Amino acid sequence: MPIVTDAAFILPDDFAGAALMGRAWRPDLAGPSVVAIRQNGVFDITEDFPTASQLAAAADPAGALRAARGERVGALQDLLNNTPPDTRDPTRPWLLAPIDLQVIKAAGVTFAVSMLERVIEERARGNPDSAEAIRAEVTRIVGTDLSQLKPGSAEAQHVKDVLVSQNAWSQYLEVGIGPDAEVFTKAPVLSAVGTCVDAGLHPKSTWNNPEPEVVLVVTRDGRIVGATLGNDVNLRDFEGRSALLLSKAKDNNASCAIGPFVRFFDGSFTLDDIRRMEISLEVKGPEGFVLHGASSLTQISRDPADIVGQTINENHQYPDGFVLFLGTMFAPIQDRAAKGQGFTHVQGDLVTVATPKLGRLTNRMRHSGDCEPWQFGLGDLFAALMRRKGLDRR
Length: 394
Description:
alpha+beta; Fumarylacetoacetate hydrolase, domain 2; five-stranded mixed β-sheet; 13 helices; 26% helix; metal-binding; hydrolase; Fumarylacetoacetase_C_sf
């Protein structure tokens, strides 16, 4: 099943007024470039901003991006067409994930629905066959609407006390309604994949799902300056067996998809737009299976600014900034292969995460070992920038 590369499909609906930053691989320079996505093409602005993190750190990133003239690399449609690895011409440019030096962080259990699903995973010990019965039991004890419960409040403490008395307390409920948010490192710096490429699943996982999320772009001083979309690919069986397997459940080759572009805040796009966003998800399987879902930021238990404040503070610093997955309320329980087993990916699934103001991030699911290997690291980036400046003396 081919990956959709149509620019009109991938761009935000109000593209004409959006300040969009991307990254592209330029074979003629043997390295990546920071690019501005404009109506008349893709422009390399690396001479002004050598890294995406530097542009994000500007006092006014949207204004700085618009002011940078840059070198035209080509039409966006041409770069998109050349991005899928199966048909790529390695002599022509293609798109990358739109971040580079930023640390990739993620918040978990920020929505009531996904919080309950995490409790179910934990009790099922990674076995999807047990999930349906456990879901009914947990819902009976906990209730289905915890979305109005403020984490860390007296009311949340009361719910915790009740659950403890019913032997139903869980580490996931602790971070879902307790005072401290779950924030973890999703993937290494520079390892994220962008749109129109393969995203990875661990080959030993038999119960997994996409997680459609908004990803905030945050500077070293804690300013939230923009956003993009992400798929926080999740292995429900691994994490369900033990929360200590979080790194294996979350961090595998190509398992962090971010894109298509970073949209910087300006007069037409602000943090309030994020707070009102609804993120849609579509999964199209090679056997004809179709799944639709949605995640509304209006239902998030913690305000995005609060999660950012719990990520960067006097105890945690990020000199090159960071990006932050905000979590999702999407928890797929629709049966796919057999009754009671819920949803899991199959090889070749096409996953699209979308919202009008950020566009559409689309990826094909494959085993991590079958995706393009991650080979371009920090040392390679520094060497590429030195060559570009004529400073390479090796």
